[in-house]
Specification:
S-adenosylmethionine-dependent methyltransferase activity, alpha/beta, Methyltransferase type 11 domain-containing protein, 254 residues, SAM-dependent_MTases_sf, seven-stranded mixed beta sheet, Rossmann fold, globular, 23% strand, 9 strands, two-stranded antiparallel ribbon, Methyltransf_11
Amino acid sequence: MNEDKPSKKVADQYDRGYDYTQYWNNRDYENAAEQVAIRRLLKGRRFTKAADVGGGFGRLALLLREYADRVTLAEPSQTQLDAAETFLAASDVIKERQQADALKFADGELDLITMVRVMHHIPEPTAEFAEIARVLAPGGTAIIEVANYGHFKNRRAFKKAGKTLPKEPVSIRTVAADQPDAIAFVNHNIDTVVSQLAAAGLTLQSKLSVSNLRSQKLKRIVPAKALVAVERVLQKPLAASDFGPSIFLELRKN
């Protein structure tokens, strides 16, 4: 285990009375789109031990339990874990306070890890990727979602301006941080992230473009079920061009 390694990361936004469960109000499409992606990547497979790293109040942990015998919600925020006590009350999902760069699992203990909506808080993910690789068994699977700076709208804008997309993470914070160590908000270059993962010993197997129809206008005029039906068709073909704002990467531990 990695109990002696101190983490430099903070989850202060989520430990100051922030109710993340409310964030998902009116986001039925986004939630369903992410579940469609995970089900597609895990279809027909069974795992022994899984962890949802940075999984908040357990929104996706119940889904993982359908594919794994034992699931741990490894979440750094106590506020989130408190919310998980209610959300996961009827399940056997284990809830532990853990940071992604200092996981408390033994080497090779897990055969499945998911990390969704976490990368946009991690400008430099080298330590997190090393930990994921450490706790995964050889041949184990990781599904990592990446907030994609190179989505279609940005690529079009950069091309029009005659510029190339940045390879480094880009801050998308719209309000000045109120604390020096406030949680980061960044989008990533997918190719850079894939290279970082490969350096950690995690090899890309497949990817999906997710939340391709994320638009307030569309959500006002098109029922969520219809959006999800179209989303299901688009995720795989649009992945090649990193079209959407969210890219799901399926990786294998070497």
